[in-house]
Amino acid sequence: MSEGRPWPTDVNLNKGEQVLEIAFDDGAQFHLPAEYLRVESPSAEVQGHGGDEKKIVPGKEHVRIEALESVGNYALRLIFDDGHDSGLYTWDYLYELGANQNEKWQTYLAELAKRGLNR
């Protein structure tokens, strides 16, 4: 662990299933689908420039991750086939996405439905 925070021990992009598989040293293991990672991107395009400006990103059901790039020893850059490649997925953020995946995904689906948008 780094400074008491979970640290990744294994990172794998399952290109066939389009799932980022990540394991941490506290035993947590997450399978994060490309669509989920795209709509929860840490980029300003998705999160906004302030704390409560998050954008709902529709139409990403079939988005694919083309590549992963390491950024130092603290993050990944994901390159999606829709051209999106901004936003750094820190280890802490990936852990948060995994730990809260069900809740975040249900919130996303509810927001899409409320706005009449499709995945």
TrEMBL record:
It comes from Tepidicaulis marinus. GO terms for molecular function: metal ion binding. It comes from the Bacteria. This is Conserved protein. Residues 12-95 form the Gamma-butyrobetaine hydroxylase-like N-terminal domain. InterPro entries: GBBH-like_N, GBBH-like_N_sf. The keyword Metal-binding applies. Keywords: Iron, Metal-binding. Pfam families: GBBH-like_N (PF06155).
